[in-house]
Amino acid sequence: MIDLLAGPVLEAARGLLGRRLVSDIGGARCVVVLTEVEAYDGADDPASHAFGGLTRRNASMFEGPGTLYVYRSYGVHWCMNIVCGPPGRASAVLLRAGTPVEGIEVMTRRRGRNERLASGPGNLTKALGVSGEHDGTSVLTGPLRIDGEPATGTIVASPRIGISQAVERPWRFVLR
DNA sequence: ATAGCGATGTTCT
DNA sequence: GAACATCGCTATA
After folding, report:
1. Average pLDDT per block of 10 residues along chain A, 176 residues long
2. Would you tell me how many other CB atoms lie within 10 Å of the CB of residue A24?
């Protein structure tokens, strides 16, 4: 897994699809299978939070591969990324959606509904109990981990959602 | 089904 | 002061 995360961010993004995202946060186990991600390529990517260099918010992006980067979106939601590439590269994969497979009851309670439990980056973090306190933890050894095998199905690439810079790069990957 | 809008922390101008 | 890697409610059709 570390080899995948330490490699080029586009390969890491594709290779993360289909894997299990396992949360042990709050004393309950919740698991989803990743179905939608986006790649952000550090200083080379105008749409990346790291494009303008190191800030207090994005500091964990500059750590080693496998670091979790959690930030607040629109002042309201938490969104999470897995840092990829060598330390200091500040590339990361935004986790946007997953299919719930375990801990459905807990995720339903956290979300306050039983449909689309983990679709959308803000909803995914909420379902799994991820928030700012998990920023900087490791997805290999921390309370939110990634494991399992990569997708066997078809991966479709398309433009990233909700950005205004580098709109033409097809760096959103969805599992069909 | 689609459109408009409010919420509001962090960063940037 | 404005923009932003979003979401769910409300209104119109």
Report:
1. 97 98 97 98 96 96 98 97 97 98 97 95 98 97 96 94 94 95
2. 16
